[in-house]
Amino acid sequence: LIQKIERNFEKIKKDLQSKIKRRDFERYSIIKEKYNGGVNVENEREFQKTYKKFYVMRFVTSEYITKYFNLLNTKKFNTQNQLGDLLNEMNGVLDSRGQNSMQFVFATKILHTTNSSLPIYDSFVSGFFRLEAVPNDVNLDIKYRIETRKRIYDELVKKSNSLLSKDKIKKYIKEIRIILDGADSISDAKMLDFIILSCEDGLNRNSK
To answer: What is the pTM of this model?
Structure first.
């Protein structure tokens, strides 16, 4: 994994300095500043607008959005062990396709917003770490579905923390902080997330 980042690091740096990515850094910083500053995110429309744009919240209903920001506003889901409780809270809230998907990806974004040392799960991260795929299991038992997602997330936390402990990754993160204004307030976990997104997205574009 380190070699993968090392081979693409110059492209990653260039990508992270682009106007689009700088805007992403800016939006993320606004989200963290407002959330940590005690804004009532359940009612703050500007926060929600920025959050939904940054995290590309698609395929969700207004009911899901209301429930989502209600749970985010509680600030109580701040450890990886609470993922199961969070998913259980989302159980039964249908997505825009009428499915009880629970939106595992967005659930991990609540965990990360509340505790920025926790990683975010998405398809890029899953591909990078070669994680077990989230199954299409909307018709299966809820307990089984939650346990499956907990297992995947526990593996992500383990692999992410292991990578963050490596000296080369610390060096890369430090280098990116130097070239990006305002990145000092962004956690190492999120910096790694930005790096992985740039790495995987770049590889996907080059393979086409």
So the answer is: 0.91
